[in-house]
Specification:
Strand order of the largest sheet: 4-5-6-7
Low-confidence stretches: 69-83
Distance between the termini: 71 Å
Mean pLDDT: 76
Order of helices and strands: HEEHHEEEHEE
Largest sheet: 4 strands, mixed
Length: 177
Amino acid sequence: MRSRRALGALLPLVLLAAGCGIRATEVVEAGEPALVQVAPAGDLGTVLYFVSSSTAARLMPVVRYAAPSGEGTGSGTYGEGPPVGAIRALDLLFDGPTGAERAAGLRSELPNDQVKMGIELSAQGVQVTLDTPVTGLSEPARQQLFCTAAQARTADRSEAVTVTGTDGVIGPARCTA
């Protein structure tokens, strides 16, 4: 009787030591992180691309609801004003991230200047003209321009973008974010 009790007390320990048949495995690679498509709500918003402070080369999309260029401060709310155009999207991009976006770890590699610009859609893609130097821009700054301009003008980030500045041309290139 005593041996049965001892055996009964040892049985859970034996099962625990055996691991119930679960074996250790190596790390299983599952591929790249998931991609998320971000789209503004109708004609009242636009998507801007800022640099994540956690990874210098990683761009993060930000949806902004804004008044169109020349109307308001760019801090309009949903339901106010006509559609935001591609020029307004680049205006907002050059203004940089809002306080809340900076607090969330976003920043811009672009100069925080008032820049005059033009955007056209041609057979070669999106053509952006800026009245500032562009050839010395970092790769993240270039991608901010390419991604924001492509999405704002065509709603397709795969469109080729060429940026002409006062010192030369960058592109054509595609958004890699």
